Amino acid sequence: MHSMVNDDGTARAERHGTATGEDGGAMTGKGRGRPRGRPRSFDRETALEKALLAFWEHGYEATSVSDLTRVMDIGAPSLYAAFGDKRSLFEEVVQVYGTRYGSFTDRALAEEPTARGAVERMLREAATAYTEPGHPHGCLVVHAAANCSTPEVEQSLRDRRNANIAAFESRIRADVAAGVLPPGTDAAALARHTGAMIQGMSQQARDGASREELEAVAEIAMSIWPRTGTHTG
After folding, report:
1. Nearest Cα to 79, choosing from 146, 176, 9?
2. Which of 11, 15, 73, 191 shows the greatest Cβ crowding within 10 Å of its Cβ?
3. Side-chain-facing half-sphere of 114: CA atoms under 13 Å
4. 183 and 157: one domain?
5. Would you say residue 7 lies in a domain?
């Protein structure tokens, strides 16, 4: 259920039954109706999605507050009251993006029994997600960092990307320990290779690569993975 927010950023109260005037008294006769001066309301979730698309398309640095208020169709005071400053809004956008558009990585790591299977699924799903119509191509977490001169934002995005690489490495090391991958596997290098592939596919999608082209890249990327015995991804 979407929350409605007044144009001054405050929560909108839904009134039922007897309407009241601005002084709280009951309104009757010709006085019944919407009180003058009542702030225009907006749907917070809809406004947040519009901000997400703006940041995704243009990156953090190139998206100004005036750009945001225009696409969100709210005033600057409303933006600050409802979302905080630009950086706070962006942090919320990244959280929403991770849940709504970027969750395929976490799902693959959680659901696939091997590192190879998880990475293969993740790259295949990235090829689809990064080229879907209806929203900007590529990955917001990768693209929003381009030309970013705000150290805190740049570091936050870097931490997210590095956390993914650490998760890949952890799964690879677990498979080495279990004998699914050869004991000499360089888990750190293989994890970083995976990170390079996912980030490169994002940029290729931005540059116009199709889903099929990215799927072919993913297939080549998986061909270098070592195998042991009869275990497969």
Report:
1. 9
2. 191
3. 18
4. yes
5. no
Contacts with 161 (C-beta within 8 Å, 6 or more apart), sequence order:
141, 142, 195, 199
Q: Are residues 106 and 146 in the same domain?
A: yes
Using only the alpha carbons of the chain, give its radius of gyration: 24
Find the angle CA(116)-CA(120)-CA(126) to the nearest 5 degrees: 145
The 10s digit of each residue's pLDDT in 9-42 is: 445 544 344 343 334 334 444 444 444 444 456 7
The pLDDT score that the predictor gives to residue 147 is 79
In this structure, how many other beta carbons lie within 10 angstroms of the beta carbon of residue 141? Answer: 21
pLDDT at 145: 83
What's the CA gap between 41 and 11, in Å, rounded? 9
Cα 93 to Cα 161: distance, rounded to the nearest angstrom: 16
